[in-house]
Every structure is written in C-alpha cells, then in structure tokens.
Amino acid sequence: MGMRYQYVVILKKKSERVSDAFSILLCLLSAISFLLSALHALRTMPTAGWLSAGLALLLIIGVAFNVIARIRRRSGVRYRYWLLVAAIGWIGTSSTPWVGVFFFLLAFLEYQTKRPLEIGFDQDRIVMNTLIKRRFDWTLFNNVILKDGLLTLDFKDNRLLQREVADDEDEDDADEEEFNAYCRERLDAIKPSFME
C-alpha cells in the first residue's frame, strides 16, 4: 500500500470468477473475429490475413493455457496480457480500432479486480486501496471490529461495511483481540477531542 500501517487487513475477493469468465469470453470472441477477418483477408491481403490468423491462434492458445493452469493450481491466473494481445489485434487488424481501446481499459480493470483489497489502519486514518485510494478519519466511525474472520466498519452516518477477511497464511499476524484493542484505543482517543 506504499505507506506503513500499524495493521493491514486483506479482504476476500469475490469477483475473480466473473472477471475470468468475462475475459475468456472476450478473448475467444476476439479470436473468432480475427479468424473470420483472416479468412476474408487471405484472398486480397495475405500478410494481413496471416497476421490476423496468428493473433487468433495466439489468443486461443493463451486462454487454453490459463484455463488449464487455473484447473491444476486452483489459484488465480491473469488474463490481462491476453486482453492486451486482443487490443493490439483490434487496433492493428480491424476496421474498428476503437474496440482495442476498450480492451486496453479491460486489461487495466482486470488487474484491479484481481488485486487484493487491503485496508490499512494507522494512528490518524483508515485507508482502502481501491482504484482510487479512499481515506477515512477515525472520527467517521462508531466502531471497527474484526470477529470470526469478518471485518465490520460501522460509520457514524449509518453506513455499514462488512466483508470477509482473506485466509490467514502468516501465523505471525496479529490476532483479532489485539486488532480490536487497537481500534478501540484509536476510537477512544478521538472521542474527547471530537466532543469538545
């Protein structure tokens, strides 16, 4: 997250499967489009036809490789490189290059959906590493608690954020009681100055 925080809580991601399915679909549709373009272009412009066919084949092999890797490892794979290949194909070989710009944007967003959502807690504020970092002063909260793998941020304006915490792989991380004591201490520290 760039800055050092007293505590960093990593939340579970829910959108990876949807993002993967969407990326696969778009890459395969691009490959089909490139193949159709190649069949048409081979008669009139053989070089452009072979280029489109090569891009289509590269996309199909890349997506197949990622799908197999996902099945074997059961861990996240990235499709952003294949979306970038599709973007280059759309810009370089099609009559609709603006679609390539859309694919560049999707490649960037695919990275964002796969990046773990981290929430940093320090003396002055709470920071979420969303697409645009969101910073919240402790004065905006009624309560912040981590219980049974569920982080709850209770805002004073009646908003409530509850999200599941990612599985803890590091055993040296702080436990829930220690984290909750820190949050209570921060909330208690701002109460006197806030009420004056």
Give a verbal description of the structure.
By secondary structure, the chain is α+β, with helices and mostly antiparallel strands. It has 2 domains: 7-11 and 116-195, PH-domain like; 16-114. The protein is built from 5 helices and 7 strands. The strands form 2 sheets. The chain has a 4-stranded antiparallel β-sheet, with no helix packed on it.
Number of DSSP strand runs: 7
Shape: elongated
* Secondary-structure element order, N to C: EHHHHEEEEEEH
Mean pLDDT: 85
Main sheet attributes: strand count, strand direction, barrel closure: 4 strands, antiparallel
Features:
alpha+beta, 196 residues, 7 strands, elongated, 3-stranded antiparallel beta sheet, PH-domain like, 2 domains, 55% helix, 4-stranded antiparallel beta sheet
List the topology elements.
Elements: E1 7-11, H1 16-44, H2 46-73, H3 80-93, H4 98-114, E2 117-121, E3 125-128, E4 134-137, E5 141-147, E6 150-155, E7 160-164, H5 176-195
Short description:
With 196 residues, the chain is α+β, with helices and mostly antiparallel strands. The chain contains 5 helices and 7 strands, in the order βααααββββββα. The chain has helices at residues 16-44, 46-73, 80-93, 98-114, 176-195; strands spanning 7-11, 117-121, 125-128, 134-137, 141-147, 150-155, 160-164.
